[in-house]
Amino acid sequence: MKRIFYIFLIATMSLSSVTACSSSNGEVSYISVQANEIYEGTVSEIGSDYITISTDSGNAKISYTEDTEFVGFGRMGKGQRPMGGNPEEMSNGEEAGTPPERPEGNGEEMGNQPEDMAKGTFEDVSINDEVEILVDENGVATTVTLLGREMAGMGGMSQAPTEYNFVNEYSSNTDISGETISSTGKDENGVLVATEDVKVNLDNVNMSRVSEDSTGGDNASFYGVGANALVTAGVLNIANSVITTDSAGDTGVFSYGNGTAYVSDTTIKTSKDTSGGIHVAGGGTLYE
Predict the structure, then answer these.
(1) pLDDT tier at 48 (50, 70, 90 boundaries)?
(2) Predicted confidence band of residue 74 (pLDDT cuts 50, 70, 90)
(3) Mean pLDDT across 16-21
């Protein structure tokens, strides 16, 4: 009798183990999603009301709602106009509309800023995206933040560059007016602002970028490599200016990470692939 009992106990324990690990029948097991936690991993499944990510602890199936914010997924394609106004007005580089009031002088405060507009939807999420998900007290996603995206054909994640090539980098409060800024190097930025708390004002500036060697691609789309004007930290304000580009991946104005860009009364013309007029990614902020 004891032997039978032991055999039954061992069989029961083995069955419980299989159920917890989900192996023999091919079903996927999930870890328990805890309230008010942050989960980081790779997207493996996208449903109409949930996202499954592979984490170091296992698969996490996390629900989302219409109130969930998708951060870092918001992007503007070539020829599109961002927030406000009539999209038709922006075609072929016509002037942008009226933005919030821009800063005056050398490094004055910006005043109240609207909420971050670099948002996407669940439709912007892709399999193999690296994301961070913050859940609320009910275990429902409040924010889904894009951390990285697989580069097509490379079999690895597209990582933010550790440094950028540039013609002009401004690391202190700067006002520039009536100048011409030209860029011809491979995958370089004509203007780079990458220092926290720095405020750069460009007024009545002619910015031109032409390069046959630039590569474009995911690094241009996600991180602003090769953009004519790039801000990754601090504030860049461009007004009453003309920006022209003729390079692959050469966005007119790109805001990424902790950067904030203001664009007003400015004409932007682009020509090549992956070269939107204005572009936001990775949590950046842009107002026009």
Answers:
(1) confident
(2) low
(3) 34
Q: Which residues pair with 62 in a beta bridge?
A: 51
Nearest to 251 by CA among 225, 232, 218, 283: 225
Contact criterion met (CB below 8 Å) for 277 and 268: yes
Q: Is pLDDT above 80 for 153?
A: no
DSSP string for 188-200: EEEEEEEEEEEEE
Determine what percent of the chain is predicted with pLDDT higher than 70: 69
Residues 278-285 have a mean pLDDT of 84
Which CA distances in Å does 85 have to 73, 179, 203?
22, 29, 22
Q: How far apart are CA 75 and CA 120, in angstroms?
A: 8
- What is the pLDDT averaged over residues 166-177? 95
